[in-house]
Amino acid sequence: MTRFIFITGGVASSLGKGLASASLAALLQARGFNVRIRKLDPYLNVDPGTMSPYQHGEVFVTEDGAETDLDLGHYERFTCVDAKQSDNVTTGKIYSDVIAKERRGEYLGATIQVIPHVTDAIKQFTVSNLNKEDFVLVEIGGTVGDIEGTPFLEAIRQLGYELGRNRTMYIHLTLLPFLAAAGELKTKPTQHSVKELLSLGIQPDLLLCRADRDLPVGERVKIALFCNVKEEAVVPALDVESIYEVPLRYHEQGLDTEVCCHFGLKTDKPNLDSWKNVVKRVTTPEGDVTIAIVGKYTILVDAYKSLVEALAHGGISNNVKVKIKWIESEVFESQIIPNELENCDGILVPGGFGSRGAEGKIKAAQFAREKGIPYFGICFGMQMAVIEVARNLAGIKNAGTTEFGNCEDKVIGLMTEWENEGKLEQRHEDSDKGGTMRLGAYPCIIKENTKIHKIYGKLEISERHRHRYEVNIEYEKQLEKFGIIFSGKSPDNILPEIIEIPAHPWFIGVQFHPELKSRPFEPHPLFSDFIRAAIEQSRLV
Ligand code: GLN
């Protein structure tokens, strides 16, 4: 029997509903249950693919090629369960499906309305494409009280009624602000938020209360009484040093025990040794290294969520803390030598779009190559490294990418046709922007006896992609003469997937996004090895 846990948020946004959902799922997993986590996002975009990272943070890409909310990254990192296309939906997607169905005449003349047609579509999405999971955790984006969230809340209310209370549970995440003048944590916003939920017909079963200090017993009793939940179901969620501590702290506060109790389930205590081990490594490192990330969205760390986590995982596997120095690539465009790069142990140029700041990224790659500093180019970062090598080593002065308009030497160009699982995919300059990149997992064949071969320890890999442009294979021979090799390619030998400079301590560019597959328990080999190389570099200086 599949049970559904609905997680809503109240009082304020950014309370960490995604982490809370991921942590509860991890705890249930540690008790031996199969879990899946889904996210229902109330905004109107069909998916976050076209949104600026400033608006919405990173776009997380699944194996099956969906562009999704960054919370799905937390879900994967905490549970090691690969998320799917069917795990994230938005109002935009629900509406476009409902309208397409109406155009096909499938509603047989009915007047199409938010209730029941939109809510039915949300319910159907929530309960379909499952695989006998014990628990499906469903996080509702936004905050209770938002106008656009209402159809989602109505849909989950109906699901509770239809599936029965023994198969459903409502968890509400709220905030208890500390008021210095009163010297206490305030419960009133939580009471109001629960009232708002009640007005929509939802009585929460458990309250997860975010606070920056211990919740006194008296306050816990008060919240329980006024919000109509058991005292044990008022679970404090205190701030922690590392996100990987969250499952441990929730367990201590009785979250998973209470959830099992709600469903009448008896299990052994969860085994949380692997979590304890990760937290120990994160909180007691033996040293540190500094990695410079040269990017465009550096003021918003959420824009590089998976990347930051993957670097931390690389630190976990080497027992060091990875310090990140954020560098705005545009700065270099007016500077000859990027001074800020001098004192770092590794340089990483992440994925990116558009010409703003690109010349700075090219300079960062040049600096890393010439100074022998470990360089990791991811997607756009690989493309910029290829342009750098083409211009400065191979003498192809006008090397560029068609992403910035027409250029003389199209070292990077738009891929107009390629095969995906036997199907021909086609793109043009004027194709729609949404959902039309090379997306999701693709296989890559690695050249024997290369650095990348040593790192992965195998010759065939699969990694996730999200890009429109590709390195132009026609330049392979010309560039190889100057010491850069194309050490990974698509199985048909047409798309360069990995480049490296064998004579450099660590200069690797990958067309895919390895950060999306890194997990705290299984750090990605590329990140582990990059941090290892950075440690070596730190010993040199
Ligand atoms: N803008 C580049 C492309 O579309 C790189 C994308 C990325 O880094 N994800 O190919």
Approximate shape: globular
- Radius of gyration, taken over Cα atoms and rounded to an integer in Å: 25 Å
> Which sheet architecture does the biggest sheet show?
9 strands, mixed
Poorly predicted runs:
none
User: How far apart lie the N and C ends?
Assistant: 59 Å
Integer count of domains: 2
In oligomeric terms, what are we looking at? single chain
Mean pLDDT: 93
The CATH topology of the largest domain is given as Rossmann fold
Give the beta-strand count. 25
Per CATH, the superfamily of the largest domain is P-loop containing nucleotide triphosphate hydrolases
* Number of helices in the DSSP assignment: 17
Q: List cofactors, ions and other ligands.
A: glutamine
Report the structural category.
alpha/beta
CATH architecture heading of the largest domain = 3-Layer(aba) Sandwich
Portion of residues in beta strands equals 15-25%
CATH class of the largest domain: Alpha Beta
Task: Please give the share of residues in helix.
Answer: 25-40%
- Placed side by side, the strands forming the largest sheet appear as 13-12-14-15-25-24-23-20-21
Structural notes for this entry:
This protein is an alpha/beta fold. It has two domains: 3-278, P-loop containing nucleotide triphosphate hydrolases (Rossmann fold, 3-Layer(aba) Sandwich), CATH 3.40.50; 287-413 and 469-540, Rossmann fold, CATH 3.40.50.880. Helices cover 34% and strands 23% of the residues. Strand 3 and strand 4 (67-68) form a beta hairpin. Helix 1 runs parallel beside helix 3 (71-79), helix 5 packs across helix 6 (150-163) and helix 12 (305-318) packs across helix 17 (525-540). The longest helix is centred in the last third of the chain and has 16 residues, at 525-540. The radius of gyration is 25 Å and the shape is globular. The chain binds glutamine (GLN). Glutamine binds at residues 351-353, 379-380, 403, 466-469.
